[in-house]
Design a protein that fits this description.
- The structure is a single chain.
- By secondary structure, the chain is of the alpha/beta class.
- The chain has two domains: 112 residues, Periplasmic binding protein-like II (D-Maltodextrin-Binding Protein, domain 2), CATH 3.40.190; 104 residues, Periplasmic binding protein-like II (D-Maltodextrin-Binding Protein, domain 2, 3-Layer(aba) Sandwich).
- The protein contains ten helices and nine strands.
- Strands 1, 2, 3, 4, 5, 6, 7, 8 and 9 form a nine-stranded mixed sheet that branches.
- Helix 1 links the parallel strand 1 and strand 2.
- The longest helix has 16 residues.
- The mean pLDDT is 94.
């Protein structure tokens, strides 16, 4: 370990499994540079930045990072895509795993559930809230939904509030007690793209650049895939 200060990293919670469990430990072992990581939704991280927080590196939803770059907070030239997250479904322990091959299968799973847990403000929840009316099942699902303000929706499966949870697959996987049923059918799948960038005010710019290179290097893709994410090339 070097005597240089730890890098400060803000990271979207959807990437926590890959970043916290694999990529940051690998980076520290390879470089000796410690990392102090803070995880939250991208919207919460942006709010903290707006209130004056200045991490060295930010990892979050690409569109939000582009806005921070336009505002002069992040170095636009450093902005690099790392992975994409698709939306999926998890079920409570002991609950039969539904078939999700088609949109019709998805509709059956959502309407048959005792309660569907989804996020109020996260990308997956916002998307699902818009999708349900298009599928013609908004009232049927929402009248008994478990809407989660923040955090992992699959926790509602573990404590019994719901028997089906919708969220980005990487977030569902972070609750090991839940069983992943699978991704949404391709016809209604929605991907959220995540990028990383160096802050203009980074205290250790060389360390931040080294971390960015580590996060975006080809070997990192296996960590993203293992955490339920998909490579940046996914359409």
């Amino acid at each position: 370990m070097t005597d240089r200060p730890a890098l400060s990293v803000f990271c979207a919670v959807a990437l926590r499994g890959a970043v916290q469990e694999t990529l940051l430990p690998e980076f520290t072992r390879a470089t000796g540079i410690a990392v102090d990581a803070h995880y939250a939704t991208t919207s919460a991280l942006v709010q903290e930045v707006d209130e004056g927080a200045r991490p060295d590196v930010v990892i979050g939803i690409t569109a939000a990072l582009e806005k921070l770059a336009a505002a002069g907070v992040l170095d636009a030239a450093s902005l690099a895509t790392v992975a994409k997250a698709g939306i999926g479904i998890a079920v409570a322990p002991g609950v039969p795993v539904p078939d999700l091959s088609t949109v019709e299968d998805l509709i059956r799973a959502l309407t048959a559930a005792r309660s569907v847990a989804y996020s109020r403000t996260g990308p997956s929840g916002v998307y699902l809230a818009a999708l349900l009316p298009k599928l013609g099942i908004a009232d049927q699902v929402n009248e008994r939904a478990t809407v989660v303000d923040t955090g992992f929706t699959a926790l509602a499966l573990v404590d019994g509030r719901a028997d089906l949870a919708v969220q980005q697959l990487s977030e569902l996987k972070y609750v090991p007690e839940a069983t992943i049923a699978g991704p949404f059918p391709a016809a209604v799948q929605h991907y959220t793209e995540f990028s990383a960038a160096i802050a203009v005010s980074a205290r250790d710019r060389s360390g931040a650049a080294a971390l960015l290179a580590h996060l975006t290097a080809s070997p990192a893709q296996s960590a993203y895939t293992a955490a339920g994410l998909e490579t940046a090339e996914v359409a």
